[in-house]
Amino acid sequence: MTRRARPTATHRLEDLAIRAISSFLRILPEPVALGSGRAIGRLVGSVLGVRRKIIEKNLELAFPDRSDSWRRRVARRVFPHIAREVVTLLRVGADRSGGVEGRVQFDRLEVLEGAFGEGKGVILLTGHIGNWEIAGGALTLEGYPLDAVAQRIKNPLADRRMRGLRERLGLRVIYRRDAPREVLRSLRRGRVVALVADQSDRRQDLFVDFFGIPASTARGPALFALRTGAPVVVATSLRLPGWRARYRVGFTRLVGADMAPPSEGELMRMYFEVLEEAITEAPEQYFWPHDRWRARPPGEGATRELGSARPV
Q: What is the pTM for the complete model shown?
């Protein structure tokens, strides 16, 4: 198991601020709290311009055929969405009486039900879009035993708080460093294991096309699938319009029970195709501040050179 770091004075101040903000947000009416989150996001993204160049570069790479004005409009909405979803998680995750209930509508839940019924566990792939934690909490209310692979937060107090939020939503947390062992155990027990696998992994030499551009991609989900024979299902969560936080969660199975297992790259490309469709439907809900194409295959130029070199 990973050894916990001891909290510093800075960690304690950060945790105190998070507790104060969380308590304040919980006493506000939901529309006011979510509106406050959006306002903070506009401050961060549009006024302070945090990671604005990366967001606009990513949008240009992913959507080269869209206009500059369209990409700027999407870029302005990214941080308001992120901040609003953080507020939602802080409010709903702190509600011990079941704040998730009634917030999620499922599309093709029978896909997950069929995969789960095979008794091999399920590898549930998702991405940084919508609000996955809320969607995962709704799945646990449906009776699915769900384990979520997550990165440990450097601040141990903030990490403990986030883990507590996820556990109150019904999720069992597996830290990424423990995943090679714990994911296999969970699948052997017939559990559903959720992995978010859409960010750059510079430790890997596997590059898979994402929006037509090779992107550094983790092998883990494909290796787990090939080793265990567990079915792979992609879940996408999109926030629905309205002041109340509500979501539509759809499910797509990547490989049928009667199909030969694909290669690592083929499986991850199938996953990206499903994710791309959801991102195209609601581009402002994706986590564009992450420099997705920062790592390049051997022999390729830097990301800033991709715009003129990408395939058409």
A: 0.91
